[in-house]
């Protein structure tokens, strides 16, 4: 392209996100075809531009993603990331240079840092009951000492990787009279960097209660206050027992090259204007988490998300915010009780 900035901001923001969406059709029902209007050659270049952007270092990647794909002005990017405006300009200049260089050498196989294809096929009329063994991805979806899960976060527009989190169930311990699992969360590939976290969960007859989160700080740890408002996670989901606070359906799920098979999809919505659809395997492991935001949400960047990627929830138009994809579980590790 003869001018890189207008090419990325216009073509990549509009046409390329339509292409990226095709990577994970069918979605929530009958797919609606979107004609990007691009020749095959230009479509290939757009896809390579998205892949090249996704392969940047976390600071450059997040600055370029917010500016070129989400359409934020440079001063908005500076405020959002907590950095000077001059740093934003410098990062964008570096990102443009590196994207050009990487596009010259990139092939279709270089897509690991962009959301993998997601195929969802409904199984109408089927029932399914899934026991919950943990709080879900990012918190550990299987609370057993030694369990390790690694997952990637992919934000829209573009479906670009914006972070990787590794959770490890380290031990059980007594916490103020509660027998809890301790879960260590370590994040990488994110901008700004996320602190190390320790979560504590109590498994009870009526479900799983999140009791405490402690975050590492530069000088000392702090306690995450919102835990006290979190509702208890039920002990199971069952399509034969409908709930007024969620919708359930049985699906076949395939993520990238991994066939997840028959899964239970659970759609829940919050009063903060966001919604999430979680996909559980029969053993209770959470393998895919899709997040949506409505027009009244306090966060989630609704106005900068694709307007042609809509899901109607409670008669409101929700836009696709991000996907969290479970990489293959790392298996169990040995943990001490110290």
UniProtKB/TrEMBL annotation:
> Which Gene3D superfamilies does the UniProt entry name for this protein?
Winged helix-like DNA-binding domain superfamily/Winged helix DNA-binding domain
* Residue intervals of the RNA polymerase sigma factor 70 region 4 type domain: 51-98
GO MF terms held by the record: DNA binding; sigma factor activity
Segments crossing the lipid bilayer? none
State the InterPro entries in the record: RNA_pol_sigma-70-like, RNA_pol_sigma70_r4_t2, RNA_pol_sigma_r3/r4-like, WH-like_DNA-bd_sf
Keyword annotations of the record:
Sigma factor, Transcription, Transcription regulation
Record has Transcription regulation as a keyword? yes
Asked if Calcium is a keyword of the record, the answer is no
Report the record's Gene Ontology biological process terms. Answer: DNA-templated transcription initiation
Q: What is this protein called?
A: RNA polymerase sigma factor 70 region 4 type 2 domain-containing protein
Name the source organism: marine sediment metagenome
